[in-house]
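Crash report, auto-generated. Payload:
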Amino acid sequence: MGEVIVITSGKGGVGKTTTSANLGTGLAMMGYKVVLIDADIGLRNLDLLMGLENRIVYDIVDVVDGFCRVKQALIKDKRYDTLYLLPAAQTKDKDAVTAEQMKKLCEELKEEFDYIVVDSPAGIEQGFKNAIAGADRAIIVTTPEVSAVRDADRIIGLLEANELKNPKLILNRIRQDMVNRGDMLNLDDVQEILAIDILGIVPDDENIVISTNKGEPAVIEGTSLAGKAYRNIANRITGKEVPLLELTVTETFGDKLRKFFGLKKK
Amino acid sequence: MENDIVIKGKKEGLEIILNDKDSIDVLCEKFKNTINTSRSFFAQNNMFVTFTGRNFKPGEKKILIDLAEKMGFNIKYSYNVLPDNEEIFENNDTCFVRKIIRSGQSLYYKGNIVIVGDVNPGGEISATGNIVVLGTLKGSAYAGVDNDYNAFIAATTLEPLQLGIGDLISYAPDTDPKTKLNMPEIALIRDKMIVIEPYKTLF
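Recovered output after restart:
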């Protein structure tokens, strides 16, 4: 029996889809059977990040409306045999699926897969309610900005009201140089407000932009720091204990020189 | 006038679903009709009520609660997300809540409120009596909402967006208070103004 994990945030643009793609791929890399569900109907993106947009024939709305079987709509990943994607519809809107239908779909997929990762849309309306309907646990993605943290707080409250207790937090797009200067919220600041368990931290990394455009999740590539962060998070989801990523700033020669003479960096 | 207020009975209490479009006057009229037509629903006193479907402006919820009271029904709590039984306790005139009040959540209680936890920015608590937060108060708190100017608001860490006592409301200064005292503080009314004092000077 599998587990349904919803990735949500409230605010848009904090990295829900990127996180879904990377965690799904990361779990598949460990050999688990994984299906990614794109619940962002009308604004489908997850297929792009996975580089699978050219393979879409049927989508989630076709499945819940009974136009096709689930198996027909599932797209097999081109890199990992145990990874599948159930794409969103692009021509419909969020009301095309109901919470009941979503629940039934998740139950069905649980029979066959180890992990079902649901990419939730931004907002707190019907699309969000659908995405969390069948979920067993929730992962909240936020960035170190007050607006994203405020929305995450609202989402935690709404999840509580929907019987999804103990969500886990991913703090995305941290820029350690800004944190060190005191210009960005750090992990402690965010946890002080949200008071939920941390699942992982992900640095702001330009490799993410590159991998998004290439349609190849960063988690696959061995070198990027963000990819490593996502590999750690995927490990933690399966119950392994992995220490939090150590984020350090590389000092330039000028910085070192300034430090040597006791000058503060501007 | 079509009456589109829906009442659902749940095990934790009543859920009253309102619409977001009507003005408060129209809503009051509808609410009055609803109470009259479904008196059996409102049978018990000290009800736990949650209002959903409407983004309340300050004071609107209070108008509805007062209206219900005028018609003989005593709404004691209102909460926009019904809490678990193990998270809320009642003792005489005081309601103890053991959870974090998060952004978008609100709690009204006829009496005193003690929160064992934080009130996050965007969260809102109001009480006819006093409010004590054993934790950080970063949201909004309104005490003595029945125009009780003797009410107070105390918190381990008092950094609210807005404070109200009686019908007075004050908001946080726009500048970052660098001189923030690291101790419990209490807000009360002195000379018709809300003032914040360190807790220890009371003794």
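Post-recovery validation: The helical segments of chain B are 24-37, 60-70.
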